[in-house]
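Re: beginner question about structure tokens

> Can someone show what the tokenized structure looks like for a real chain? I only ever see the sequence side.

Sure, here's an example I had lying around. Input first:
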Amino acid sequence: MRKKMIGIIGLATVVMGGAAWGVLREMGASPSAEEMKAYEKLAYFKDGEFQSPQKMVYDFDNVRNGPAGWSRFLFRSPFAPQKELPAVHLKKTDFAKQPAEYAFYWLGHSSAIMELAGKRIIFDPVFDNAAPLPLAVPRYGQAPVSCEELPEIDYVVISHNHYDHLERKSVQTLRNSHFIVPLGIGAALRGWGVAPENITELGWGDVFEKDGIKITAETAVHYSGRGLRDRNKTLWNSYVIKAAGRNIYWAGDSGYGEHFKKIGVQYGPFDLAALEIDGWNTGWPNTHMFPEEAVRAAVDLKAKYVLPVHWAVFDLALHPWHESIDMLLEQAEKLQVNILTPMMGEKVTPGETSTKNWWRRD
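And the corresponding structure tokens:
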């Protein structure tokens, strides 16, 4: 009996150790002490943390459709679609050998492939669940393309390190591409096998320029963290992308704020703005934008077209999966803002491709 108990305890220790190792691997490395010291010269870094332009607000007594406990992420959401969502499922052979001058494929949530100036840029590639544990924070359905079927990607642009925006597996698949990331994320990428020369870390106002593409990192109202002890140790960015006579804004995650108007004045007008529309809740009112705020941001940015992102894949905020896009379209019609609503995996050329309200099929 004693030997049996020792064996059970030993097996449990091995299993728990393996699980802990797996979680740590998914979390990735944090910036070194030397890197953290260097950040102290930045106006938006204080007391060992990057600072949001607006203080993050939390009011958990006012959570809509609560409760908002972590346990809800372990099960399929009651707010998820009841049927598999329509999508264009892609393989490598579906992508032209030579990328277009201007087109994109929305892959669901905040992931997208942009073809620009004959190059391919992928934004926040995440193809599985959005947590360090398998099956936690599950997707509503299969991604329209797998890591293994991605075409050749020139640049990988990461907005911040939350699990629904930064995924170890996709990073390792794309490790030969060049990564443009916020300050501090390079440590995790290097730990996952990306060569240092393939990583460019940008702070707010910093610029990356190559192959006729100019990418400027800009502000966002948000925060970062992949574990219990690394909150705001890495930065979060929005991006202004100029190439081939096009001007594009990729907002990443951000609550609404005056930074949109400032960016619109400094860099606008924009041919396309990718703006998050989902993840909002009265319990965390400025962590993400409410749909009507996304429309206001589009006006501030002087955007010709808007691509709604951060929806249709994960339940992060306790509301029906299609509520955000319906609210967005209603408000956009009032303010005459042009919204593009492609199916996941559909190729779109703004100004040429007509998109449909594909989620309204019943």
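Each token stands for a local structural state, so reading them left to right follows the chain. The CA atoms of residues 111 and 125 lie 5 Å apart.
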